[in-house]
Design brief:
Layout lengths: L8 E9 L2 H7 L2 H21 L3 E6 L2 E6 L8 H25 L7 E9 L1
Antiparallel strand pairs: 1-3, 1-4, 2-3
Helix pairs in contact: 2-3
Length: 116
Amino acid sequence: SRLHVGERNVSIMFSDIADFTNLCESWSKQNFVFVITRYLSVMTQVVEMYDGIVGEILGDGILAFWNTPDDVDDHPSRACSAALAQQKALELLNQQFEVAGLQRLKIRIGIHTGPV
């Protein structure tokens, strides 16, 4: 039996923390675990709020998909909305990090929609 795989239009988003390696070098192990756990938990929830699927977490990076494996109406718009919501969520996270005496984070986000 052959696996049936068809082409479909998908939105893909990748986001990560800018200059993460250098930031990590200045943190204690406890601060690293606090930041990365809090960051990934919040950003994953944001993706899921907009009907995205987190396909992989690569260090500090999040690879998310819309319209696969299930159909998602208006997936390009939902991916863009998730990216904007990640930026807003980062503002709140940065407030928490500053209270803990840690540097503010900056994130990078890329989105592409097309056939896969």
